[in-house]
Specification:
This protein is an alpha/beta fold and 298 residues long. It is built from eight helices and 17 strands. Strands 1, 2, 3, 4, 5, 6 and 17 form a seven-stranded mixed beta sheet that branches. Strands 8-15-9-10-11 form a five-stranded parallel beta sheet. It is elongated. The mean pLDDT is 94.
Length: 298
């Protein structure tokens, strides 16, 4: 059986993958965009941080607009998961799409990351109501001068707290056992910035009648916030590239060159899976660069 050789296989149907697909279809390239339906963007209730939408846009609406634009370029999103990727001596990439073999000259990995959530009762309900956020760059401005709670871990959590301090002086760092691991230096950094430290076992989260977040501690004490940030880091979906030997940083993000090519020739990456700033505008910009480089290389 002869397998069709694609110009490019795109793995991940978030803003980066969809943008790259739009560009490559406009270049009349034969592509396949595979999406497992786990884009981080679908969890964005509303962002005012994406250029061109002064009234804001939700993640699902942005994804739908990009899908519509791709359809007008005679492109589509194929649901599924790529389980394996290998590169043969002839430079071609062979992939397993839920048991279906694929062959492509180039691959663009736009698989993104997964936010790490604490195992805390009530968190998912608050997240669905837009009261739990993950990106202070995107959303910090929206909560200027409000009381912000930050669930953080070690240096990453403290670093996020110091960044958020730019937007509000009413901050509380919530050190959940098993995540925080604050040493004396990190504790002093919080104290120097007058960031309140809440430590100890947490029982559950809920929204009270006033619309505030209510955090119940193990000892029964109650703390109130207007919004909650999770600053526990992310898990990077770069395993397919790592199995090929692609270089990553300590956090698992793929290292890319100025054309968004990884250390594996023909394998490109765009969006949160790379070692660049995790922003929608950056992801779509990277995708434009990568798609153009892929087209030129072909």
């Amino acid at each position: 059986m002869v397998t069709q050789v694609l110009d490019c296989l795109i793995i991940g149907g978030g803003p980066a993958g969809l943008t790259a697909a739009i560009y490559l279809r406009r270049f009349y390239r034969d592509i396949l965009l595979v999406d497992a339906g786990r884009s981080r963007a679908r969890l964005i209730p509303l962002t005012h941080n994406y250029p061109g939408f002064p009234d804001g846009i939700s993640g699902p609406e942005l994804l739908e607009r990009l899908r519509t634009q791709l359809a007008r370029m005679n492109g589509q999103v194929t649901p599924g998961t790529v389980h394996q990727l290998r590169r043969t001596p002839d430079g071609l990439f062979h992939a397993d799409l839920d048991g279906l073999p694929l062959v492509a000259r180039r691959v663009l990995l736009a698989s993104g990351v997964v936010d790490v959530d604490p195992n805390l009762a009530g968190l998912s309900e608050l997240r669905e109501q837009g009261l739990v956020r993950y990106c202070p760059i995107c959303d910090g401005f929206e909560f200027t001068n409000q009381h912000i709670g930050i669930i953080g871990s070690a240096e990453h959590g403290v670093r996020e707290s110091l960044f958020i301090k730019n937007f509000s002086s009413a901050l509380s760092f919530i050190g959940i056992p098993g995540y925080a691991q604050l040493d004396d230096k990190l504790t002093r950094q919080l104290q120097d910035q007058q960031i309140n430290l809440i430590a100890g076992p947490c029982q559950r989260l809920m929204k009270n009648d006033q619309g505030q977040i209510q955090l119940e501690m193990g000892d029964g004490q109650i703390h109130h916030f207007d919004v909650l940030y999770c600053a526990l880091g992310t898990q990077v979906r770069s395993q397919l590239a790592q199995e090929l030997g692609a270089r990553c940083n300590a956090g698992g993000c793929l290292e890319v060159d100025e054309h968004l090519q990884t250390s594996i020739p023909g394998l490109y990456a765009a969006g949160d899976v790379t070692d660049r700033l995790s922003q929608l505008a950056v992801a779509t910009g990277q995708a434009a660069i990568a798609a153009t480089a892929i087209h030129n290389s072909l």
